Amino acid sequence: MIVDPSADDRLDRAFTALADPVRRRIIARLSRGPATVNELADPFDISKQAVSKHIQVLEQAGLVTRTRDAQRRPVHLNAAQLEALTAWIDKYRLIHEQRFRSLDALLDALDSPDTPQDATQQHATQQDATQQDATATGVTPPEEQE
Amino acid sequence: MTTTKSFIITAPGGVPYIDFERDFDAPVAAVFRAHSEPGLIKQWLGPRGYEMDIERYDFTTGGGYRYIHRNGQGEEFAFNGVFHTVRQNEFAIQTFEFEGFPDVVSIESLRFEDLGNGRTRLHGHAVYPTLEARDAMVASNMEAGMTQGYERLDELVGAQ
To answer: Which ipTM was obtained for this model?
Structure first.
């Protein structure tokens, strides 16, 4: 894996940039297509200067780019950077949420007296051979201390 | 009965950490047990549509684990690590390696907090070698269950 030291800074700046609700709305607007600073400032009750500052922050984070188009200078979304930023954490959340919901179901089942716990227990014992060996040789696993 | 439980993830900017918090309607002993017995681990850790083959799972201080997720297309995703510290109903710290990404190892701690009234809060903290490693590991680790994950999530959301 290539480690690019500037990537840390870029990611950090991107997270900071997206921590602001106005900047998130600007990103949302740009996801529909490029826009000028005036067009971006329109829906907000803040000055054009303030919007320009927000765009600067987004630009430094690599989330948007500005093209030189005479006086217009439209702002474009850098979709690749945004995806790079959000993809991993969404996946992380999704897989863990799925896991924990399965764990919820299992905990419900463990709590219910109707559950055939023997089957579960038997399975656990089978898989747990390493631990059984440890016990047999006199090493006490932590769960048996107390 | 299914209730929506908040699942809080934080990934502070500029540092390769992930923290999470999740509550369970079960006592600490049950949540800990679900993490310590391979037969129970199998029932919740693996993604749907994958067979989870636990080669070794010794949830004790100095123990270790290796398991493989296999799907119907013959794809395999293997993971391994060691348990550095395991304290019953309280705390565990382990290493984690996806074998498709060898030598990039994260260190993950789990704290089991007793909330009283038979409820438990699980605190997780993972440290990766670099930010890139974190992003890449999370992405590749997830390959194993993504499609099924979405389907399952839709089902779960639909069921409520």
So the answer is: 0.76
